[in-house]
């Protein structure tokens, strides 16, 4: 191909994508892994009580946040989340906040409190919605190294996700839960168990923020690109 044999160093944000690269026609080319980074000075934790009051969300429910540019996307798998919610016990304990465009009607169980907020373009609003939520849910069937997960971490909110793609590299036992991809029953059980220990949830919020600062800040990402650039130009690769 036109990209082969020119001493190009390719960069992947995840081990998962790098593995796909090594299976491609470019498998003999050089590749480095540099994770995506975000502005951790912008995405920050907030006052949960005050933020819920600001948006009119219930203070006494478990708030689950789901976001996708298109709710009908087969890869974002909103349908698996809906299937999981149908299996949850004590549905009235939960509040679901849904972000994204949808051109088809969505039916929710009557016991669920649901806020359909459409597509959010304002990053400040996104930060506050992450921060006021108890968990961000991303049941993606395929994903690389999504910045939404990192934004949630930086906002102090743990993540529940299907174990697909680079999500398995982002989430560990201190920052969230990984669920068998496509398994709605396992997703329902994970959602329920997430709220069984309030102290653990509090600790996870702190771990999420710490992980975002330590590994996924813009400063960390830029430093790694700078180091790579210097190696390439110095002939160290």
Description of the molecule:
With 237 residues, this protein is an alpha/beta fold. Helix content is 39%, strand content 17%. Strands 5-4-3-6-7-8 form a 6-stranded parallel sheet, with helices on both faces. Helix 1 links the parallel strand 1 and strand 2. Helix 2 packs across helix 4, helix 3 crosses helix 7 and helix 5 packs across helix 8. The longest helix has 18 residues. The radius of gyration is 19 Å and the shape is globular. The two termini are 21 Å apart. The relative contact order is 0.17.
Short structural description:
The protein is of the alpha/beta class and 237 residues long.
What's the tally of helices? 9
Main sheet characteristics: 6 strands, parallel
User: Rg, please?
Assistant: 19 Å
The amount of beta strand, in percent, is 15-25%
Distance between the termini: 21 Å
Which segments are poorly predicted (pLDDT under 50) over 5 or more consecutive residues? none
Largest sheet, spatial ordering of strands: 5-4-3-6-7-8
Overall mean pLDDT stands at: 92
H and E string: EHEHEHEEHEHEHEHHH
Choose one word for the global shape.
Answer: globular
Name the helicity range: 25-40%
Q: Structural class per helix/strand content?
A: alpha/beta
How many beta-strand runs? Answer: 8
């Amino acid at each position: 191909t036109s990209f082969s044999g020119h001493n190009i160093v390719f960069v992947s944000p995840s081990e998962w994508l790098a593995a796909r690269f090594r299976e491609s026609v470019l498998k003999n080319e050089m590749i480095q892994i540099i994770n995506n980074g975000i502005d951790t000075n912008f995405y920050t934790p907030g006052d949960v009580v005050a933020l819920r009051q600001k948006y009119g969300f219930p203070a006494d429910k478990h708030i689950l946040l789901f976001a996708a540019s298109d709710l009908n996307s087969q890869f974002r798998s909103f349908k698996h989340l809906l299937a999981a919610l149908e299996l949850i016990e004590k549905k009235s304990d939960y509040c679901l906040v849904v972000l994204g465009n949808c051109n088809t009607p969505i039916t929710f169980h009557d016991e669920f409190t649901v806020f359909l907020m459409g597509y959010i373009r304002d990053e400040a609003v996104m930060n506050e919605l992450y921060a006021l939520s108890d968990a961000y849910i991303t049941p993606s069937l395929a994903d690389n190294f999504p910045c939404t997960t990192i934004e949630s971490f930086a906002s102090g909110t743990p993540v529940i996700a299907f174990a697909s793609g680079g999500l398995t590299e982002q989430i560990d036992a201190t920052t969230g839960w990984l669920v068998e991809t496509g398994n709605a029953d396992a997703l329902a059980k994970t959602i329920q168990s997430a709220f069984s220990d309030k102290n653990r949830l509090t600790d996870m919020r702190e771990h999420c923020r710490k992980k975002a600062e330590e590994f996924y800040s813009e400063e960390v990402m830029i430093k790694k690109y700078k180091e790579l650039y210097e190696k390439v130009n110095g002939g160290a690769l």
